[in-house]
Automatic annotation (TrEMBL):
A Pfam short name: MVD-like_N
Record-linked Gene3D superfamilies: 3.30.230.10, GHMP kinase, C-terminal domain
Organism the protein comes from: Cryoendolithus antarcticus
Enzyme class, broadest EC rank: lyase
Keyword Lipoprotein: no
Keywords: ATP-binding, Lipid biosynthesis, Lipid metabolism, Lyase, Nucleotide-binding, Steroid biosynthesis, Steroid metabolism, Sterol biosynthesis, Sterol metabolism
Protein name in the entry: Diphosphomevalonate decarboxylase
Reaction it catalyzes: (R)-5-diphosphomevalonate + ATP = isopentenyl diphosphate + ADP + phosphate + CO2
Gene Ontology BP terms: isopentenyl diphosphate biosynthetic process, mevalonate pathway; sterol biosynthetic process
GO cellular component: cytosol
Biological or metabolic pathway of the protein: Isoprenoid biosynthesis; isopentenyl diphosphate biosynthesis via mevalonate pathway; isopentenyl diphosphate from (R)-mevalonate: step 3/3
Record-level Gene Ontology MF annotations: ATP binding; diphosphomevalonate decarboxylase activity
């Protein structure tokens, strides 16, 4: 091995937004969830983490940089991922003496997000998925996305779902070692390729209560949580998978909105209560309801993760009714640039009875992001270091 040779690999990894939410852990060390979950992987053309993993004998220590800022790489979650990936590479090296001993080299990991970090837009999911996938590529590991999902889960629970494109489930599992708590493909992106989303960014600030702290507080204090984890979510997982298989948007939308409401109800039932949604979030809910009422059918579905930003799902055929309405309200905000955004025509007037919500939305939204269902991680030759 050449002393100063630098080995590197880069990847893009997508954001995923859950429609059946993961909240609560049965094992904090292994990041094992109390309930299964299901998400839609969003297009990397719009939201992604770009990560380059490199290793060299010339590197003095492992380092991690995110958006130009040094990060603490010694955290237990990050170390768990690095340890498992190095172990898999070491196994390969022990079986093939001709392989370079990359497992013994220090790593330099550089990542960039093209969206706000730690603001409820699943940045940690995309981040750890990109970290795991880029190092797996660097080490030339033969592991499948399912196998890698077990590792990524230890970094950030929902990261396991970002190793797949399309519609993705995460089995909560029952094994104490977490071996069966893995992600799986429900359907590829091209199964239901006309799924779209408009993200209303209500805040790009770091949230007051982290997901990790919030979910453990909920597990410990919410009376509603037990019924959600043990009864409600398992039933909804079955119904959501069926809705996706049948491409039944009305069922998909109903389940999505009800599960978002259920998740935030458990947050409010936590002691002390956790408020991830704000006035702007609630205004987005009322506008979605008005859009559906005006259409005379369900054409959009809102969902909120652990943050105030609204993700509104709809089908391409209803872009004028959904995205067009939001453009009529938020047309002065950034995000409508580009060929797709420019094609969205402003819809007619929204009902007068939600004028207050429209005004709140106009004041509280900083930008919009137009996106849709997309594929899983992509290897790239665009290196960050």
């Amino acid at each position: 091995m050449e002393d100063n040779k630098v080995y590197r690999a880069s990847t893009f990894a997508p954001v995923n937004i859950a429609v059946i939410k993961y909240w609560g852990k049965r094992d904090t060390k292994l990041n094992l969830p109390t309930n299964s979950s299901l998400s839609v992987t969003l297009s990397q053309d719009d939201l992604r983490t770009h990560t380059t993993a490199s290793c060299s004998a010339s590197f003095a220590s492992d380092t991690l940089t995110l958006n130009g800022q040094p990060q603490d790489i010694s955290t237990p979650r990050t170390q768990a991922c690095l340890r498992e990936l190095r172990s898999l590479r070491k196994d390969l090296e022990s079986k093939n003496s001709s392989l370079s001993q990359l497992s013994s080299l220090q790593l330099k990991i550089v990542s960039e997000n093209n969206f706000p970090t730690a603001a409820g837009l699943a940045s940690s999911a995309a981040g750890f998925a990109a970290l795991v996938r880029s190092i797996a590529n660097l080490y030339a590991l033969p592991a499948s996305p399912t196998e890698l999902s077990r590792i990524a889960r230890q970094g950030s629970g929902s990261a396991c779902r970002s190793l797949f494109g399309g519609y993705v489930g995460w089995n909560h599992g029952s094994a104490a070692d977490g071996s069966d708590s893995i992600a799986y493909e429900v359907a590829p992106a091209d199964h239901w390729s006309d799924m779209r989303a408009v993200i209303l960014v209500a805040s790009a600030e770091k949230k007051d209560v982290s997901s990790t702290a919030g979910m453990q507080a909920t597990v410990g204090t919410s009376a509603l949580f037990k019924a959600r984890a043990e009864t409600i979510v398992p039933q909804r997982m079955e119904e959501m998978e069926e809705a996706i298989r049948k491409k039944d948007f009305a069922a998909f939308a109903s389940l999505t909105m009800r599960d978002s409401n259920s998740f935030h109800a458990t947050c409010l039932d936590t002691d002390p209560p956790i408020f991830y949604m704000n006035d702007t979030s609630r205004a987005a809910v009322r506008v979605c309801q008005a859009i559906n009422e005006t259409a005379g059918r369900t054409v959009c579905a809102y969902t909120f993760d652990a943050g105030p930003n609204a993700v509104v799902y709809y089908l391409a055929a209803d872009e004028a009714a959904v995205a067009g309405t939001f453009r009529g309200i938020l047309g002065e905000k950034t995000g409508w640039e580009g060929s797709r955004g420019e094609k969205v025509e402003k819809a007619g007037q929204v009902p007068e009875n939600i004028a207050g919500s429209v005004e709140t939305l106009q004041k509280g939204i900083s930008r919009v992001i137009l996106t849709g269902v997309g594929d899983g991680p992509r290897q790239t030759e665009e290196h960050l270091c």
